[in-house]
Amino acid sequence: MIATRFVTDRLAMLPLRVEYSVPMAAVLADPELYRFTGGEPPTAEALSERYRRQVAGPGRPGESWLNWVISVTQYDQLVGYVQATVIGDEAEIAWVLGMAWQGQGYAKEAAVGMVGWLEAHGAARIIAHVHPDHTASAAVAAAAGLRRTDQVDDGELLWVK
Residue 105: phi, psi to the nearest 5? Predict the structure, then answer.
């Protein structure tokens, strides 16, 4: 499976390219963004290396890494990313939206669009891991059609569709 461009009402999901590392470093620069996930803001150089690995893919048969940056079409502005690791017909998804663009429904719109894209491309089961205190991410998962389970994995709740 290969990530292809897709659009929603206000957004374009653009397949990841190494060239996005500089603008995405600015999007991901707020330390508050890592409160639930841990880590710290990446430099453009670190993102460039990460993006090279992600674009190259896992190199394991039957596994695909699908990565998109989120662009607000009205402004042609990168605001975050969505991603999926697909093994067989199961996709594990995640999303991150820069702090400056949160609260406008972009994460929900992008996640709903990605789930639709994945289902159209054969994903039968979709899962996400959400920190139990991260109510905004829980709302995104619910909007994307996932339901919360009681299963905890590494401190995060499993959501499934």
Answer: 85, 5
